[in-house]
């Protein structure tokens, strides 16, 4: 089910602007890896290279390799659409489809891909909503529009939508940054459950969150404004937060800069 | 101590100032109209437009003067800006209302079921009787066919420009759409006419549809483009990240989100071409008899009918009455289209709330 990600020598551009340079790391299956680092250092960019969403941006270009269980996502003949079915994504701002009901939002991935059986659909929707800890709150109004939910519920709806297509890897870009502490806690608990089934990568600006939910933590930084972002180090979360091997990491985590 | 307090009390509040009562704009408007009429009569002006202009100028000046005296200069400027907006609004609305009023007043004379269900047939243009059934049929068919051609091409062009278009080709398409927006309708008609002459064809309805489609397309492209650009990129990305191919994302996420606005744009462009006369005159020619086959033989159409009734009337009141009644029908048709477009836009708008 869950798959391992192996990145080597990855560089990404926006047009002629090099956003991240020479990043290599391994993400183990059924683990949670957190990305931390200052704003603009390329965490989102790197995350989006992992399911080929980077090239959706006009001018977006990638060099290097991303292996998903030994298969290079950027190899010849790889269809980005199938990559995205294996590697799902949750965005910073909840973005349910405004024309669809709650049910249709969760079913969207299956319906739009066209490969589903009608009889299975409601089972999948129920299972995904339960998996996203949203079922009890919405089971009585599955036919109401998804945009009528609260921000935290919408974000969990988006998670349900992402896991409904049974991806192998789930990428989350600051999934809690627009949420209150209670919804944040709900999503953190959810991440703990989801890691049994998926490989999870999460970007966060919240150190405590990284420490709470992740097994491993990667610290990104940029040498100076205008320079591409780089991976400074990746290690077990406990080590990063107690005894990192690079001074810059310790400075960042403890709030000392410059 | 008490000294300071008295000074403080005497100072006027900085937050509350003198202000004119709520009804003052109306009073000033009425006053300036009365004074305007007075001045005009005294000066012996007989054009009502001059009366109105004098009243409008008096209204703006009067608002400024009174407000400046009572409320201060800043509020006076604010009120002058507001009164300018009102004057502009009235100037824009007066001709519209008078046009609709004239059309209704003159149009209802002969507008009845008989008029709507009979053609002119052998009724001479100078005599009373006859109807516009043939023109309604012609208009519906020509505009309908034009929409069937123009709307899909326009929407697909807009989808190309917004969702796929990059580089030279997209720039060229945008440029040509801009050029097409400026094509006078008679030129579109001449273009199709030259093709017809090449193939030695006689006037027929569908030729008119082609010219109308040319006129319609750029309008549809522009409005659809704007609507597609309003769809947040996040929705496209959400769909793509689910592993949905791009074309399906456009079809199932982007278009449904913007369908209300797109329909409104199409309806408005239909309203625009429904009133076109020049290309229809060249290509469809006009026909007092019912011809419901748009692919063969001359047809009538409402704008063409109006034009021909006026030009062939030879001063006969009956023809004028018919022309006004047909105008009323055309305006009603366009208004109904607008209402339908609004209805669809509201019905299809992304739903919020629980
Ligand atoms: N669409 C884009 N076009 C051009 N440059 C971009 C685009 N998106 C991001 N960049 C640039 O790429 C670099 C990395 O941006 P990215 O969004 O990955 O940072 P981030 O680490 O996610 O920041 P944050 O923590 O604020 O989300 C920045 O210099 C940014 O200006
Ligand atoms: Mg980011």
TrEMBL record, chain A:
Question: Which Gene Ontology cellular component terms are annotated?
Answer: membrane
The record's section on InterPro entries has: AAA+_ATPase, ABC_transporter-like_ATP-bd, ABC_transporter-like_CS, P-loop_NTPase, PstB-like
Molecular function (Gene Ontology), one example:
phosphate transmembrane transporter activity
Q: Any idea where the ABC transporter domain is?
A: 5-247
Task: Establish whether keyword ATP-binding is in the entry.
Answer: yes
Segments traversing the membrane: none
> Keywords in UniProt for this one?
ATP-binding, Nucleotide-binding, Translocase, Transport
Listed Pfam families: ABC_tran (PF00005)
Gene Ontology terms describing biological process: phosphate ion transmembrane transport
Q: Does the keyword GTP-binding apply?
A: no
Protein name according to UniProt? Phosphate import ATP-binding protein PstB
Q: Which organism encodes this protein?
A: Streptomyces brasiliensis
Q: Which gene encodes it?
A: pstB
From TrEMBL, chain B:
Which terms in the Gene Ontology molecular function aspect does this entry carry? phosphate transmembrane transporter activity
Q: Where is the signal peptide?
A: none
User: Which cellular component terms (GO) are annotated to the entry?
Assistant: plasma membrane
Q: Which GO terms describe its biological process?
A: phosphate ion transmembrane transport
Q: Which UniProt keywords apply?
A: Cell membrane, Membrane, Phosphate transport, Transmembrane, Transmembrane helix, Transport
Q: What is its main location?
A: membrane
Q: Where in the cell is it found?
A: Cell membrane
* Domain (ABC transmembrane type-1): residue spans on this chain: 136-341
Q: Which residues cross the membrane?
A: 23-43, 49-68, 80-104, 143-162, 174-198, 204-221, 253-274, 323-345
CDD domains (UniProt xref): TM_PBP2
**Which Gene3D superfamilies would you find in this protein's record?**
MetI-like
Tell me the InterPro entries matching this sequence.
MetI-like, MetI-like_sf, Phosphate_PstA, Phosphate_transprt_permease
State the annotated membrane topology for this chain. Multi-pass membrane protein
Q: Which family does it belong to?
A: Belongs to the binding-protein-dependent transport system permease family. CysTW subfamily.
Task performed by this protein: Part of the binding-protein-dependent transport system for phosphate; probably responsible for the translocation of the substrate across the membrane.
Q: What is the protein's name according to its record?
A: Phosphate transport system permease protein PstA
Report the source organism: Streptomyces brasiliensis
Give the source lineage, highest ranks first: Bacteria, Bacillati, Actinomycetota, Actinomycetes, Kitasatosporales
